[in-house]
Design a protein that fits this description.
Elements: E1 14-18, H1 20-24, H2 37-40, H3 43-46, H4 49-54, H5 56-71, H6 77-88, E2 92-96, H7 102-105, E3 111-113, E4 116-123, E5 128-131, E6 150-153, H8 162-173, E7 177-181, H9 193-199, E8 203-207, E9 220-222, H10 226-233
Parallel strand pairs: 1-2, 1-7, 2-3, 7-8, 8-9
Antiparallel strand pairs: 4-5, 4-6
The protein binds nicotinamide-adenine-dinucleotide.
């Protein structure tokens, strides 16, 4: 595969837009692909507001397991390259659909998490959100006020956080280089971001071993794994 090295100095704003494939390379299971979580679990019982209201202990057990599994996996070379690019350029943002915190574990800052994070909880009664970075299981399942806490994740049928969406929209509309990695482009509204970047005049690049519904939008497409392709895209 012929990969042209990118001169990052040419672009004022750079966005890395990542999906489950980025973490799959580290060993974090996808939802629907081979070995996907929803083949083993029924999401209606584990990943929606109704499930949490019906049986919060069961939903917490499931998410404790997700945290434990994520900690058994480690960032790969592709995650490290994104951190290196960020260290060498003043305006780099990661917009991710992933909830596993793998970018942050690779040292990347400025990560917009569209679908929340398994490393945060919120109290819906008191309205606060906070990090819970305990190794493995959540530190607390209940708030001091007595209410159940809730993993700060976008579950099925949840509205996305409007502030987070606004931030993502603004960042993508203003970027000059948009690199999508490991997303099939079928989950909305994230699936609209490649087109938003393209219409805003950004150079758009896709890194994915498989073609997807959005692939036609990109100026360049690299069919390979993130950990192999990203190091070859940047001279660092
Ligand atoms: P997806 O599962 O629909 O698609 C994954 C994509 O990654 C596929 O196109 C696949 O070809 C590609 N891929 C696989 N291995 C790759 C590699 N090594 N390098 C580059 N690409 C690779 O993922 P999605 O588009 O992110 O949508 C799934 C939804 O599920 C998202 O909303 C996400 O929040 C959620 N999810 C998150 C996690 C996580 O946090 N790790 C895991 C599973 C699902």
């Amino acid at each position: 595969m012929d990969i042209k090295a990118i001169d990052i100095g040419k672009y004022k704003g750079i966005v890395f837009f990542t999906g489950a494939g980025m973490s799959a390379e580290s060993g974090v299971p996808t939802y629907r692909g081979q070995g996907g979580i929803w083949h083993e679990y029924n999401w209606q019982e584990y990943a929606c507001q109704e499930a949490w209201k019906t049986n919060p202990e069961k939903v917490f057990d499931f998410h404790d397991l997700r945290r434990e599994e994520a900690l058994k996996c480690f960032p790969h070379k592709g995650h490290e390259i994104i951190t290196d690019v960020q260290d060498s350029h003043p305006n780099v943002t990661v917009v991710t659909q992933n909830i596993d915190g793998m970018h942050q574990r690779a040292g990347t800052e400025n990560v917009i998490e569209l679908h929340g994070s398994i490393w945060r909880v919120r109290c819906e009664r008191e309205g606060w959100v906070k990090e819970d970075l305990a190794e493995g299981s959540f530190e607390n399942r209940k708030c001091d006020c007595g209410a159940w806490l809730r993993p700060d994740i976008i579950w099925f049928s949840d509205m996305l956080n409007q502030e987070v969406l606004k931030q993502a929209d603004e960042t993508i509309s203003n970027c000059e280089l948009f690199i999508s990695i490991g997303t099939s482009g079928v989950v909305w509204p994230a699936a609209g971001y490649p087109q938003l970047a393209k219409s805003s005049g950004a150079l758009c690049i896709e890194v994915n071993p498989e073609p997807g519904e959005q692939s036609y939008i990109y100026d360049s497409v690299y069919r390979g794994n993130a950990g192999d392709v990203l190091p070859r895209m940047f001279n660092m």
